[in-house]
Amino acid sequence: MPNVPPGAANPREIHDDALALVRHFEGLYLSAYLCPAGVPTIGYGHTAGVRMGQTITSLQAEVYLRTDMAEAGAAVDRLVKVPLTDRQRGALASFVFNLGAGALQSSTLLRLLNQRDYEGAAGQFGRWVYATVNGEKVQLDGLKKRRAAEAKLFETV
């Protein structure tokens, strides 16, 4: 199943399993908070235009999630040059939502995927489990679990 080109009439939806994965790992916050990186965040990890003191409804959080994941999916569509199933695309959109398109763009995961090494690409998710905490690069259990869930979704037929 080929990726839909940017600007196509019927853009692909993000797979429900990918949305559920992001909901689970981001959690729902109806009041703005500062994420560990100090960025105002609300809903399911939404950051664009968020200001401290802001509150939203669960419906608005869902709208933000779907919009943010659609943007992540569009980035996946731009970067990936091989066919993807809806679940593979969703797993990659979750990855991009969490880490940014630049992380995917410069990754061995993308290089292997674009060489049609789907199995090798799936094996790369587990390398993205580090965060800088107090100036030190450390593995985070939450990231290990998220990357494992993304790899599982990517490998699901």
Structure description:
- By secondary structure, the protein is mostly helical.
- It has a single domain, classed as Lysozyme (Orthogonal Bundle).
- It is built from 7 helices and 4 strands, in the order αββαααααββα.
- The strands form 2 sheets. A two-stranded antiparallel sheet has the order 1-2. It has a two-stranded antiparallel ribbon with strand order 3-4.
- A hairpin with a 2-residue loop joins strand 3 and strand 4.
- Helix 1 (16-26) runs antiparallel to helix 7 (141-155), helix 2 (58-79) packs across helix 3 and helix 3 packs antiparallel against helix 7 (141-155).
- The longest helix has 22 residues, at 58-79.
What is the approximate shape? globular
Strand order of the largest sheet: 1-2
Give me the secondary-structure category. mainly alpha
Helix content: 40-55%
Stated plainly, the CATH topology is called: Lysozyme
Q: What Rg, in angstroms, do the CA atoms define?
A: 16 Å
Order of helices and strands: HEEHHHHHEEH
Low-confidence stretches: 4-9
Quaternary organization: single chain
Instruction: Tell me which CATH architecture applies here.
Output: Orthogonal Bundle
CATH class membership? Mainly Alpha
- The tally of helices reads 7
Number-wise, the strands total 4
Q: Sketch the major β-sheet.
A: 2 strands, antiparallel
Residue share in β-strands: 5-15%
**Average pLDDT reading:** 92
Count of domain modules: 1
Span between termini:
12 Å
